[in-house]
Amino acid sequence: MIDNNQLLRFTTAGSVDDGKSTLIGRLLYDSKSIFEDQLQAIEKTSKKKGHEGVDLALFTDGLRDEREQGITIDVAYRYFTTPKRKFIIADTPGHVEYTRNMVTGASTANAAIILVDARHGVIEQTRRHAFIASLLQIPHILVCINKMDLVDYSEDAYNRVIDQFEEFSSKLLVKDVRFIPISALEGDNVVNRSTNMDWYQGAPLLHTLETVHISSDVNKIDARFPVQTVLRPQSESHRDYRGYAGRMASGVLRVGDDVTVLPSGFTSKIKSIDTFDKQLEEAFAPMSVSICLEDDVDVSRGNMIVRSNNKPETSQDIEVMLCWLNKTSSKPREKYSIYHTSNSETAMIKELVYKIDMKTLDRNTNDEVLNMNDIAKVRIRTTKPLMIDSYRENRTTGSIILVNDSTNETVAAGMIV
């Protein structure tokens, strides 16, 4: 039984002409997720451009620049819903110079759709997108082998792509990879099962997205509660109320649990867990709640409430896989603000261990400067300790961003190793 309130975020990636925009258009069109007026406008545009049918790509290439160039240049978010689930699509660009856009769009995704043109097979861009998906620990990867209509729906062409993909993906940390042969243009295996590929026994793409199991993607073991603010209402009914408000990053906390406040190390028990209108017995990710403790301990924004028998690592030296997002290159020993959960401190990049060559995915140890779209392993030193988990264990407490204080621009996003 799938909970129809469950939200699945997925990202799409592929080379420039692999048909991403057409695929999303087909998903929206065949699942009847398009408003009548949108449909009319796009039918009109398609006619004007001389297309016979509806140009499905126009549903997603919403920016005028993109329509004029015929490419996707920014991350476009689309929301749609079916009786079984709600979906947010992050449609990310395919070019190398938009690596940072893909990292941004994919950072919160439960699944990634990687498009491969059945005629060309696995190319450099495919490897890059799969590498980024594994780096961001996206739990489910759906490899859609598109344009099957242009290879006469050949099972051999489909199997050839699977062999190519598996050959290099064995080195990546990806748990769940599925392969679906599709034709986005003709609608084969996107929403409806294809009659042209009766050799394929799996489910169409939409059915796979509706049924893929995502409840276990959230870390339910390590209870982490970053405090965002302290609530002291001072009203008649809440004269002595002191609650710590925030959002559960992972795990479960219950009334009566023994907890420790980090970084101070003070211990207490949970007295109550409150929401705006009621008290709860337990809170779990991603609920926003207020927690009251039995003892009067000093807790402030940026602190973390955790179970006493399960603590994150507290450290000032952090190893991070960093994606450089800014046009201005990194400078040695430059100071940045590091944002981690509800905490912010000053930090600097102490050492650049290696850069990933995005063409070959080899490690380059001779380069000391980070330029836009670079991905590298770095060592960061912070002025005060942060409460961290590895990104693989916990995507919330394992991620950071770096901000340039003088320009207030986000310069990098990172995954703690």
List keywords for this structure.
alpha+beta; Rossmann fold; Elongation Factor Tu (Ef-tu), domain 3; 22 strands; 17% helix
Structure write-up:
With 417 residues, this protein is α+β, with helices and mostly antiparallel strands. The chain folds into three domains: 6-217, Rossmann fold (3-Layer(aba) Sandwich); 224-307, Beta Barrel (Elongation Factor Tu (Ef-tu), domain 3); 313-416, Translation factors (Elongation Factor Tu (Ef-tu), domain 3). It is 17% helix and 35% strand. A six-stranded mixed β-sheet has the order 2-3-1-4-5-6, sandwiched between helices. Strands 7-8-14-11-10-15 form a six-stranded antiparallel beta barrel. Helix 6 links the parallel strand 5 (140-146) and strand 6 (176-181). The longest helix is centred in the middle third of the chain and has 15 residues, at 155-169. It is globular and about 70 Å long. The relative contact order is 0.11. The model is unreliable at 63-68 (pLDDT under 50).
